Amino acid sequence: MITPPYLQVGDSIAIAASARFITKEDLIEPINILKEFGFNVLMHENLFEINNQLAGTDENRALVLNEYLKNDNVKAILFARGGY
Question: How far apart are CA 62 and CA 54, in angstroms?
């Protein structure tokens, strides 16, 4: 089992939307809390896309997640909403 290191002040946390779309207004408070804890919050330019009830197309959501997974500076990924 791989155990990731604990998050440290200054680490980057990425926000992804893997299912239903999210608005900027919905994320203001959570982002402010993460920043108060000293984290750098990353949001992809495609985070707020809307495709019917989803946060962009399947391809777009997968692209964003894969970019975050490949980015060595991203220490954690938080999902903006639940999914199915």
Answer: 12
User: Could you tell me if 13 and 76 are in contact, meaning their C-beta atoms sit under 8 angstroms apart?
Assistant: yes
Question: What is the 8-class DSSP label of residue 80?
Answer: S
Say how far apart CA 49 and CA 61 lie, in whole Å.
Answer: 9
Whole-prediction pTM: 0.88
User: What's the pLDDT tens digit per position in 12-47?
Assistant: 999 999 889 999 999 999 999 999 999 999 999 899
Dihedral angle over CA of 4, 28, 16, 49, nearest 10: -170
Q: Rounded to whole angstroms, how far apart are CA atoms 16 and 79?
A: 5
Are the C-beta atoms of residues 21 and 49 closer than 8 Å to each other?
yes
Paired tokens of 50: 């809307």
What's the one-letter identity of residue 69?
A: L
